[in-house]
């Protein structure tokens, strides 16, 4: 059959425009769906990274407390309301020298929006009594008004609004600065290990306070980051890995 002269085939202009409009709408909806999925994946990855960083920081916290070493020269664990200081063995070195470690809330403009960070400071290996005393003073200055040299030794872990420390003594948790939490008149007897490390420790100081039986860390995580809220971490002396909650 021969088609009639003048008959048309294919799409009309209106049909073509409608088809293009539908395809554009489908493309836009698909793009929004992909963009939403990408954003969700990005937020999830940020949360995973935030959890990993926090877990690494808490693992370091436990490791520091597990490795606490009594020099007899300064308190093995001390909290002055601003910085928690401790002396620990450096288990990475063959001769296991002493290091002084500090934990504090520091406002570091370059990280966590400059709102405050839970940060850690570590001294180089210490092998003399003078080095230990110097590092013990330096870590306190780091928490208050650090020099550029001290800033090079700090690591910011996670953003926090505030933090609290409690010591477990006399079968209860208490503020380390209170009369119950700080037994200032107690003297640590010289242990065999500290007596054998005379090059580091020297004479036993009369104002050294005994270690607490436990340390409770309370962090108020700042907003605007993948993790927020209040985190509590308990460490118990004599238990491998500490006690965690």
At a glance:
The protein has 245 residues and is of the alpha+beta class. The protein contains five helices and eight strands, in the order H-E-E-E-E-H-H-E-E-H-H-E-E. The protein is elongated.
Report on the structure:
The protein has 245 residues and is α+β, with helices and mostly antiparallel strands. The chain contains 5 helices and 8 strands, in the order αββββααββααββ. Strand 1 and strand 2 form a beta hairpin. The protein is elongated, with a radius of gyration of 30 Å.
Secondary-structure map:
Blueprint: H1 13-66, E1 77-79, E2 83-89, E3 98-106, E4 117-122, H2 129-144, H3 148-151, E5 154-169, E6 172-174, H4 192-196, H5 198-201, E7 214-221, E8 229-236
Antiparallel strand pairs: 1-2, 2-3, 3-4, 4-5, 5-6, 5-7, 7-8
Order of helices and strands: HEEEEHHEEHHEE
Roughly how many Å apart are the termini? 87 Å
Helical content band: 25-40%
Number of helices: 5
User: Low-confidence segments, ≥5 residues, pLDDT <50?
Assistant: 183-205, 240-245
Q: Give the overall shape, derived from the CA principal axes.
A: elongated
How many strands?
Answer: 8
Strand content: 15-25%
Radius of gyration: 30 Å
**Alpha-beta classification:** alpha+beta
Mean pLDDT across all amino acids: 82
Count of domains: 1
Main sheet characteristics: 8 strands, antiparallel
């Amino acid at each position: 059959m021969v088609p009639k002269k003048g008959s048309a085939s294919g799409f009309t202009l209106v049909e073509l425009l409608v088809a293009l409009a539908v395809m554009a709408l489908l493309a836009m909806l698909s793009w929004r769906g992909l963009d939403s999925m990408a954003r969700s994946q990005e937020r999830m990855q940020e949360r995973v990274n935030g959890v990993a960083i926090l877990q690494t920081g808490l693992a370091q916290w436990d490791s520091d407390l597990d490795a606490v070493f009594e020099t007899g020269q300064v308190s093995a664990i001390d909290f002055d309301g601003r910085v928690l200081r401790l002396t620990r063995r450096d288990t990475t070195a063959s001769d296991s020298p002493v290091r002084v470690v500090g934990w504090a809330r520091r406002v570091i403009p370059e990280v966590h929006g400059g709102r405050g960070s839970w940060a850690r400071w570590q001294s180089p290996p210490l092998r003399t009594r003078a080095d230990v005393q110097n590092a013990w003073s330096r870590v306190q200055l780091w928490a208050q008004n650090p020099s550029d040299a001290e800033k090079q030794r700090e690591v910011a872990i996670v953003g926090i609004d505030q933090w609290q420390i409690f010591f477990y003594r006399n079968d209860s948790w208490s503020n380390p600065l209170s009369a119950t939490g700080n037994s200032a008149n107690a003297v640590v007897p010289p242990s065999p290990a500290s007596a054998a490390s005379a090059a580091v420790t020297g004479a036993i100081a009369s104002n050294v306070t005994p270690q607490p039986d436990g340390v409770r860390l309370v962090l108020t995580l700042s907003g605007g980051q993948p993790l927020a809220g209040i985190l509590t971490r308990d460490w118990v002396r004599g238990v491998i890995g500490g006690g965690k909650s």
